[in-house]
Amino acid sequence: MPPDAQHRLPAASPGVPRLTVVGSVNLDLVARVERLPRPGETLTASAYERIPGGKGANQAVAAGRLGADVRFVGCVGRDAFADEALVNLRGLRLEAYPVDAPTGIALILVDDAGEDEIVVVPGANTELARLGDRYQVEGAVLCQLEVPDAAIEHAAAGAAWLCVNAAPARPLTVDADLLVANRFELDAVGPQRGLVALTLGAEGAVLYDDGDVLARASAPHVDAVDGTAAGDAFTACLVVSLLEGREPEEGLRRACAAGALAASRFGAQPSLPTADDVDAILRA
Fold first, then answer.
1. Residue 278 to residue 7: CA distance in whole angstroms
2. Residue 197 neighbours by CB under 8 Å, 6+ apart
3. Of 81, 151, 223, 239, whose Cβ has the fewest other Cβ atoms within 10 Å?
């Protein structure tokens, strides 16, 4: 491994890895359809569910299921959706600040092939930037881009090591030790130095160090059901694996397995695998 890459990896946590996730929490309003609609077309759904989601919350729940000691920082509204959105975060070190804005929601369509369309209404998540010094972070920190830049900058200022999942994509205002993005997100973010995990869906993923390939991994074959949280499972598993001190290639392989498992199950947080799930599919 190049020495510079070693410096960008997080220090392995003795015992259970500790991680702070600063990000979004939503309630997903999910409709199942035979196929995704064309512009201007109305379709009839075969099913409808309300499922806890939000990229920040998804990644926090995933990291907890994978064995990390997780602290989650986010905002919710003072409304009925808040309790539903937080239900799977209750077992973590939860700091959910109530604000005078509606709890974030995501409108999601999932077709029979597992493809989806998602529109996020941020709501309370936009207020995370206004909390200022009401919370501080330290150690390893994971952020996504469903919250304002100011919230990410605040988290980055206290982080000993920072991973940013560039979704939904926009140019970054912080220097991340590790960036996780798909092809479209990486194009929107622009060239990045340091460690970049490029996700390729069913083709797996590549980990770059200053543009040079550091590791490659393929994804195990699964029957796709719903890709909503596959990227969140991948990101959380890669971060937890690196915090556990695993080599980048092993961490990337485990992350691809976690993403594949999530894509093979319906819903965001209900689809997120445990460490035992990842071990099992890698042994198969």
1. 27
2. 178, 179, 180, 181, 205, 206, 207, 208, 234, 235, 238, 252, 255
3. 223
Q: Write the single-letter amino acid at 45.
A: A
- Dihedrals φ, ψ of 4, to 5°? -65, -40
Q: What torsion, rounded to 10 degrees, do the Cα atoms 59, 281, 238, 205 define?
A: -110
| φ and ψ of 124, to 5 deg | -60, -25
Split the chain (284 residues) into runs of 10 and give each run's mean pLDDT: 68 87 96 96 96 96 98 97 96 96 95 90 96 92 97 96 96 95 93 91 94 94 90 98 96 98 93 97 92
Handedness of CA 64, 65, 68, 69 (dihedral sign): positive
Catalytic residue among 83, 232, 277, 279: 232
Whether residue 29 contacts residue 204, with contact meaning beta carbons closer than 8 Å, is answered with no
Largest CA distance in the chain: 55
CB 75 within 8 A of CB 97: yes
pTM for this structure?
Answer: 0.93
Measured between alpha carbons, how far is residue 264 from residues 45, 142, 222 in Å? 20, 24, 6
Active site residue 112: no
